[in-house]
Amino acid sequence: MERIFTKLAGRIAAFAGKPLAFVLAGAFIVIWGVTGPLFHYSDTWQLVVNTATTIVTFLMVFLIQNSQNRDAGAMQAKLDELIRAVDQARGQFIGIEHLTAKQIEEIRAALEKECSEQPDQYQGKAGTTGDTVEQLLARY
Asked: What does the pLDDT look like over 89-103, one tens digit per residue?
């Protein structure tokens, strides 16, 4: 069941992010709007679009969340493997995504403080990114 849901959720989420999905949704709204005079803008006519959009939105929340959870889990596994494979990396960072937001913020603050205590080229948070960002921007 989980494999089927994962496959279905992945396909629907991928389709929902394509221009064709937007065009189809836009076409649905245009068709609904054009049919307004035919149905004299009745309560039923309004209920159709309200119900359809509510159902689609409700289901898409779960499908997109499932895709994001899988993507985030895969990313964490890849990062954990990099930490494990690099000799100078600290293995204690593996699994920190399970900590509270406060604990993670404390770790970030400690890392930034540690960077500020490094030689001039690594001063503070800005010192860790400045050259890299400048090089990246120079490419474009």
From this structure: 888 888 888 889 999
Structure pTM? Answer: 0.61
DSSP tally for the chain: helices H, then strands E: 5, 0
Report d(CA 45, CA 37) in Å as an integer: 10
Do the beta carbons of residue 97 and residue 76 sit within 8 Å? yes
Q: Is 120 exposed, middle or buried (0-12, 13-18, 19+ CB in 10 A)?
A: exposed
Please state, as a whole number, how many other Cβ atoms lie within 10 Å of the Cβ of residue 24: 12
For the record, the structure tokens of 87 come out as 């000799």
Three-state DSSP state, 98? helix
Which helix (H) or strand (E) segment holds residue 99: the answer is none
CA 136 to chain centre: 23
Rg (CA), the chain: 24
Indicate the burial class of 9 (C-beta count within 10 angstroms; 0-12, 13-18, 19 or more): buried
C-alpha 11/C-alpha 83 separation (Å) is 31
**For helices 43-85 and 2-16, angle between their N-to-C axes, nearest 10 degrees:** 110
User: Residue 92 carries which DSSP code?
Assistant: G
